[in-house]
Design a protein that fits this description.
With about 270 residues, the protein is mainly alpha-helical. It contains eleven helices and no strands. α3 runs parallel beside α6, α3 runs antiparallel to α8 and α7 runs antiparallel to α8. The longest helix has about 35 residues.
Length: about 270
């Protein structure tokens, strides 16, 4: 085999390994049969059955709400942490702050979930808040570990940014707040969008931590899917996964277009 064909061949094999299961799942979501591995004909009945399943619909709405709120909180806090670590120079406690901001990246989910559960139980006993486990506790937990990912993304973007732009704006009389909103924020906006989408996806995908900090009546979509597949994979789960894949694909395409547009403006 010529050397010029090695890299494309390996790339095709790699992408096939990654996406063949996803394509198979999408195809079998339109299977008429109840058996998920036996194709008997095209049908959209499992999509109709999915939207008539009140448990899955409620779990999907809850997961989307938690993911949206968690991603927004994580983006705000992660941006502030990224700015502090990259723009404030050397200050006392910077090394400790860097380690604490990065720790959730390598911390096992089981440890994070257990520690947050103990925290919420202790706070409820001492302060009376949060009362029980549900939307609030899951949102706080997801914001905590998603913030670390946003911090890394924003900090990397700020490190590549030319600081002479900020200095030139300040030399012309702009205040630090005006410089941030008129110069810094537009330049790092692709990183903010990427960070928000990353946090949204991580929150939507989380099963382990949510299992620790959720309570009765607050089951997220991954928890419902996991409980269903323990009894065997059903075609409606394939339909649900296909819808999620479509939403994620649209989000990635939208973020890419917005990022390209923002970079052209800069």
């Amino acid at each position: 085999m010529r050397r010029g064909f090695i890299i494309p061949t390996l790339a095709v094999l790699g992408f096939a390994f990654l996406y063949a299961p996803i394509i198979s799942l999408i195809v079998f979501s339109f299977n008429e049969s109840r058996l998920v591995t036996v194709w008997t004909g095209f049908s959209t009945q499992w999509y109709a059955a999915l939207f008539n399943d009140s448990q899955i619909v409620s779990a999907a709405i809850l997961s989307l709400q938690i993911a949206a709120v968690s991603a927004t909180i994580a983006t705000v806090l992660g941006t502030l942490a990224g700015i502090a670590l990259s723009r404030l120079g050397r200050f006392r406690g910077k090394t400790a702050l860097t380690g604490m901001a990065s720790a959730p990246l390598v911390m096992p989910d089981v440890i994070t979930g257990l520690s947050l559960l103990l925290l919420f139980v202790s706070m409820e006993g001492l302060l009376g808040w949060p009362s029980g486990r549900g939307f609030t506790t899951i949102t706080i937990a997801h914001s905590t570990f998603c913030m670390a990912y946003v911090t890394v993304v924003v900090r990397a973007r700020l490190s590549d940014m030319d600081r002479s732009l900020d200095e030139a704006a300040m030399d012309l009389g702009a205040t630090p707040l005006r410089v941030f909103f008129d110069i810094t924020l537009p330049i790092i906006s692709p990183a903010l969008i990427s960070g928000w989408l990353l946090a949204f996806t991580l929150s939507l995908d989380d099963l382990v931590i949510a299992s620790f900090v959720s309570g009765p009546g607050a089951s997220t979509l991954p928890m419902v899917i996991f409980s269903k597949i323990r009894l065997g994979v059903s075609p409606d789960v394939n339909a649900l996964a296909t819808i999620i894949i479509g939403i994620v694909a649209l989000g990635v395409v939208g973020a890419t277009l917005i990022g390209m547009r923002a970079q052209r403006k800069v």
